[in-house]
């Protein structure tokens, strides 16, 4: 399908309800088919669409509209797009990744989730970390984790339509999407003007303008964010005129200010109002080579809970600040390697206390009524009560 026809199809969907009244049922049917096509293309990353009826699919409706988002506990997922990156996926994409010129590691090094985005949404996840770059033809934005291509077909635009449809079905909910350009995808790949132009185009279509929260450089109330995607911009538009950055909604977390592998990042995202995010992103423990996984898990747990405690006990101006903690980690350079799954869930009898996720359960139970902020999990669905326990910390009612 040509880009012109594809764009027209997407436009037809976004105007579908208008067309139905103006031109009759055939146009309405075409709009539905166009949406079905887009969601099918998105499914390797988004999953097969289903309208969730679980209590966790509408947990935000229990909070009043005037609730400040920075005072909420919001569960999220790290490297969202990796859920389907199995050995079979890697082998199916070998003919493409072989052209990238990068060494491939086992899929366990890259995989951080096991359930699709649609399940994440229905399970209560509201913050999503997505990593994009150009495909091998340098024309389409697709998803990677380092050099690991996640899908040959699902584009960023396709996946955003999945979120749009879900928000139509769940208007009480607010979604937060962190977008970051993924480096090291191919030898000659770069975040050049072409990549940035395509990103801007994707985020300024009629559909995107309808569903992206227009807020800029601050987080407001839940009521203003309902039914919308609030964009966390972990990207720069430094190859484009400054007007592009000035007009882009959301919060800007410049990669140049996001220090690498840091347990205590203080990142100013609004210089005029001196608004600061307090971020924990200690993802590679770099413990002594040969040390047991339990040591790396312990170090990671300590770094994450320290930021949670900073959020819970913040005073003064910090009380109204954004706190953002990544519960995710890996140490694949250790011997033997500690994959994201081992860090999150442990390694059987070798880690008797479990992984970071298991150890967070009693910590969350001890923090009743506290604000911890945004928590980004690996393998969020294990243990099965992890997300619910996190939500119950300050939930106005058990849903």
Automatic annotation (TrEMBL):
GO molecular function: phosphoric diester hydrolase activity
Signal found in the keyword field: yes
Pfam families for the chain: PI-PLC-X (PF00388)
Keyword Protein transport in record: no
InterPro entries, sorted: PI-PLC_domain, PLC-like_Pdiesterase_TIM-brl, PLipase_C_PInositol-sp_X_dom
Phosphatidylinositol-specific phospholipase C X domain: residues covered: 95-234
Biological processes annotated in GO: lipid metabolic process
Bilayer-crossing regions: none
Signal peptide: 1-20
Keywords: Signal
Name this polypeptide is given: PLC-like phosphodiesterase
Organism: Rhizodiscina lignyota
């Amino acid at each position: 399908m040509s880009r012109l026809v594809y764009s027209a199809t997407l436009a037809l969907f976004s105007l579908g309800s208008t067309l139905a009244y103006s031109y009759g049922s055939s146009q309405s049917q075409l709009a539905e088919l166009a949406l079905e096509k887009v969601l099918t293309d998105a499914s390797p990353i988004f999953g097969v669409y289903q309208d969730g009826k679980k209590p966790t699919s509408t947990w935000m409706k229990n909070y009043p509209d005037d609730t400040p988002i920075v005072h909420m506990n919001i569960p999220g997922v790290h490297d969202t797009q990796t859920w389907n990156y199995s050995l079979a996926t890697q082998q199916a994409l070998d003919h493409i990744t072989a052209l990238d010129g990068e060494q491939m590691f086992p899929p366990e090094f890259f995989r951080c989730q096991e359930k699709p985005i649609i399940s994440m949404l229905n399970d209560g996840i509201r913050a999503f970390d997505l990593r994009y770059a150009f495909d091998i033809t340098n024309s389409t934005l697709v998803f990677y984790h380092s050099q690991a291509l996640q899908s040959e077909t699902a584009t960023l635009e396709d996946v955003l339509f999945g979120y749009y449809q879900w928000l139509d079905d769940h208007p009480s909910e607010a979604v937060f999407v962190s977008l970051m350009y993924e480096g090291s995808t191919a030898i000659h790949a770069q975040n050049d003007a072409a990549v940035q132009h395509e990103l801007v185009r994707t985020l300024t279509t009629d559909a995107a303008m309808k569903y992206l929260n227009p807020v800029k450089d601050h987080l407001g109330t839940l009521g203003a964010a309902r039914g919308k995607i609030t964009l966390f911009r972990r990207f720069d538009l430094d190859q484009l005129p400054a007007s592009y950055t000035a007009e882009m909604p959301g919060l800007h977390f410049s990669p140049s200010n996001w220090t690498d592998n840091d347990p205590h990042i203080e990142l100013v995202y609004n210089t005029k109002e001196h608004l600061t995010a307090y971020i924990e992103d200690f993802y590679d423990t770099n413990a002594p080579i040969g040390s047991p996984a339990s040591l790396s898990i312990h170090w990671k747990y300590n770094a994450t809970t320290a930021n949670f405690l900073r959020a819970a006990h913040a005073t003064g101006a910090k009380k109204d600040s954004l706190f953002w903690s990544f519960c995710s980690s890996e140490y694949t350079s250790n011997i033997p390697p500690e994959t994201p799954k081992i860090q999150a869930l442990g390694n059987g009898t070798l880690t008797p206390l479990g992984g970071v996720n298991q150890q967070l359960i009693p910590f969350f139970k001890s923090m009743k009524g506290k604000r911890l902020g945004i928590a980004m999990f690996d393998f969020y669905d294990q243990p099965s009560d992890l997300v619910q326990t996190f939500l119950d910390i300050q939930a106005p009612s058990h849903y």
